[in-house]
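Continued from yesterday's entry.
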Amino acid sequence: MTVGDLLNLLSAYNPDTPVRLAVNPFFPMAHLLGGVESAVDEQGRRVVYIAESKEAVQFGPLPPAVAVALTWQPPAEGPSRRRRGATGPHTGQ
């Protein structure tokens, strides 16, 4: 992804919309962004890094719909509900 790709994706949203960072596909969590920095990588290319907040604010689990949209989790359906029989002693009458 390039800066242009990211700007293009973000342009679909209201500029006042909060942004959070989704991390760890195996235990998806949402984090507060802390800044943007750049450096030169091993091949001499400029790379932009989006950082987590210095306070390491974690907002908790990523909403399941976001994890599915990122293809980190398959869509899940709730278990089917079957009518259960009555429980307790039978009087036999």
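--- second protein ---
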Amino acid sequence: MSAHPPKARPEALAERVYQALKDDIFAFRLMPGDRFSESEVATRMAVSRTPVRQALFRLEREGFVDVWFRSGWQIKTFDFAWFESLYDLRTVLECEAVKRLCALPAPQCAALLDALSQFWCASAPLADGLVVSQHDEAFHITLVAAAGNPEMTRIHAELTEKIRIIRRLDFTRDDRISATYREHAQILQAIFQQDRATAQQILTDHIAVSKAEVRKITLHRLQQARLQLTE
């Protein structure tokens, strides 16, 4: 038997590099506008340039990086108009999901959303903004998935992935964390009461505040967020 461990498959290496770079982008270890070369990434991750290039082209297709053929790669700068358009689409999909949930028999709806109710209405609030942001994302994904339309769920999951990088900034302040708990509980209560208009209004306002926060984001705030997320 060979004493050497088997080499990782090229696809596995590319996936590992892709996930590591995406984590760096989401954690703001790589900031919008940062430039780097394939060789720098390959050296840092102890792989060849081929899986690095595959990972970077995948990230380019997803809108996270730009390629500069003469000067390497760059983390894509924020296009705030694009993010706001995604928030608008998110509002449309989630309001439709609420409409469908309110039309379900009350016991069925309660069963579908029981885990959300336990977390947002019956558990002690968490203080860690990063963890709360993950639960917030799961809350909205679950609402749409519970409505039972696979295509709505797929499209919503895709846009959720695209806004994750900027959405996390909404949970670097204690008041926004508290508001998220309160508003999520109100949305669930209105759904359980089959009060579609109230649930949709609270949800729309809830997303609108997050959208407004996007407009306030500056490079200075991004730098602050990087410090907070790495403390």
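Residues 1-5 have pLDDT under 50 and may be disordered. The chain has two domains: 10-75, 80-230. Will compare against the first tomorrow.
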